[in-house]
Amino acid sequence: MTVQDIPTFNAALNATATVLISAGYVLIKQGKREAHRAVMLSAGVVSALFLVGYVAHKILVRGVHTPFGAESPALRGIYYTMLLTHIVLAIAIAYLVPKTFAIALKGDFERHKRWAKITFPLWLYVSVTGVLVYFFLYQWWPATPAG
């Protein structure tokens, strides 16, 4: 794996987290508590691996940002709005997910449910927009090299 492969790997981790988070939601709605727990813990592990990969990539590229290649003002507006909300909410879920997990692991399921009503949609949004950021930057509108 090269440094150029890391964003694709990270997008795959985010996509996997999206599927797991969604499955966890369905499982708890079906009353399958043990399956929900296993899937959500897996989503947490996948998201943690993403975070390690993201930080490693930033270190390896020395913090250089990948430019957005679309020239359309509308696309740029959509992208930067999505990116800003993604970043702000990613910071929030870095606290919310472990806190929500800790409450569940203590067995306080009523409190966990209250926290999860906030954490779930934010975590899902961050996972989905993480994949979209990848597609915007690397697949749909990559910046063309100058020259």
TrEMBL record:
The chain crosses the membrane at residues 6-27, 39-57, 77-97, 118-141. Keywords: Membrane, Transmembrane, Transmembrane helix. The lineage of its organism: Bacteria, Pseudomonadati, Verrucomicrobiota, Opitutia, Opitutales. This is DUF420 domain-containing protein. It holds the Pfam family DUF420.
